[in-house]
Amino acid sequence: MKRVVITGLGAVTPVGNNVADFWQSLKDGKNGIDLITRFDTEDLKVKLAAEVRDFDASLYMDKAEVRKSDRFVQYAVAAASQAVADSGIEGNVDSSRFGVYYGSGIGGFETFIAETNNLNNRGPARVSPLFIPKMIPNMAAGNIAIKFKANGPCICVSTACATGTTAIGEAYRTIAGGYADAIIAGGVDAAITKLSIAAFDNCMALCESQDKDAASIPFDKRRCGFVMGEGAGALIVEEYEHAVKRGATIYAEVVGYGSTCDAHHVTAPDPEATYSAKAIRDCIGDIRVKPESIYFNAHGTSTPMNDKTETQALKNVLGEDAYKINLSSTKSMTGHLLGAAGAIEAIASIMALREGIVPPTINYKEADGACDINCTPNVAKKADIELSLSASLGFGGHNACIGFAKVDR
C-alpha cells in the first residue's frame, strides 16, 4: 500500500469563500447562520439558513460556463480551482493518472425547480435543453475533470451527508492501491430552496428557531434540528512519493478511513451506534496515540438523535477515553452543508492538526446527559494534536470517518 497525503485545499462556505477566511472564521467562532435572503419565507416555519455570501463564480469560470451551470457546479469548480492552485498539481501529473472523486447529496436542485416550473407554467417546449446537464449530480465531478484535464478515474459519490468524507476516503483507497497518482476529492451542495426547506422541515429534521444563536447548537440540550447550509470543499489527495518528487507542500498524511452502513432506517441513525462506531474504529485501525492528542470533528448536526448517537459511537470505540479527546462540531458555525459537509470538515480537521488549535462548538449553553463529552464550548483552544479525525453520518445509514496525521518524512 502506498502512502497518501493532502497537498491542496479549497473551500466555499457560509463563513468564508477560501480556506484562509474559512479557517479564521472557525477559530474566531463566527456564526454563518442568518435569515434566508434567497426567497420569501413568510409561509415557512424555518427562517434561517447558512448561505454562501459574496460569491463570484466569474473568478473561476467564464460567463458562458456560469450561465450553463447550476450553483452547485459553480461552487464545486471554485473549490477545486482553489485546491489545484494551492497544490501546484496542474501540469505536474500524468493526466491519465489524475482523477476526480467528487460528490453531491442533492445535485442541481435550483435547476430542477426552475425547469419544473417552466414545464408546468409554459409547457414542454420551454424546458431548457440544459436541464439535464445542469441538474444531474455527477456534473460537479465532470466539470472539474474537464477544467483540469483529469483523464483518470472520475466518480460521483452520493452518500447523503457523508458524501464529502466518502469521496476523500475512496480517493485515498484508490491512490493507496496504486490506481492513480492524484485525485481532486470533495463534495458540494447548493440546495437552499423553498422546496428543500419545506421538505426537510416536514420530515422533522430542521430547527425552527428564529434566533441564529440558538439554531445550530450541537450537543446542547436545547437542540431541535439542523440548519441547512451550502458550499463546497475540495482536497488534492496525492501519492506521497509523487508529492515529494515534485516538491509539493504537504498538509497532512491520510492515515485511515472507515466506511459502514447502519442498515437500520432511511433517516434515523441506529441508536446502538454499532456501525457508526465501526467506521471510527476502522479508521483508527492500529494507530495508538494518547486520547488527549486526538481531535475529532464531529458530524454534530444539532438533531436530538444524531448527537446522542455520535456520543454513543465514541464511547463504543474509546470507552472512558472518549471524555479525554478534543472534540467540536463546526456545524455550529457553518450549518449543515449536506454533501459538502464532510469535505469542509476534513479541511477544518487538517488545519486543526497543523496549527494545534481546536475550533469551538459555539452557542453551547445547556449540558445534556446523553451528550456528556467535552465539545470545546464557545471558545477555541490550543492542543497538541497528533491524530485528527472527521466523521460523517448520512441519511440511509451511511457512516464514514477519515483520519489525518502530520507527515513524518
Low-confidence regions: none
Summarize the main sheet.
Answer: 10 strands, mixed
Structural class: alpha/beta
Average pLDDT: 97
How would you describe the overall organization of this protein?
- It is a single chain.
- It contains 13 helices and 14 strands.
- It has two domains: 4-245, Peroxisomal Thiolase, Chain A, domain 1 (3-Layer(aba) Sandwich), CATH 3.40.47; 253-405, Peroxisomal Thiolase, Chain A, domain 1 (3-Layer(aba) Sandwich), CATH 3.40.47.
- The mean pLDDT is 97.
- Strand 13 (387-394) and strand 14 (398-405) form a beta hairpin.
- The chain is globular, with a radius of gyration of 20 Å.
- The strands form three sheets. It has a ten-stranded mixed β-sheet with strand order 5-4-6-7-1-8-14-13-9-10, with helices on both faces. A two-stranded antiparallel sheet has the order 2-3. The protein has a two-stranded antiparallel ribbon with strand order 11-12.
- Helix 3 (71-87) runs parallel beside helix 6, helix 7 (163-176) crosses helix 13 and helix 10 (274-284) packs across helix 11 (304-318).
- It starts with a strand and ends with a strand.
- By secondary structure, the protein is α/β, with parallel strands linked by helices.
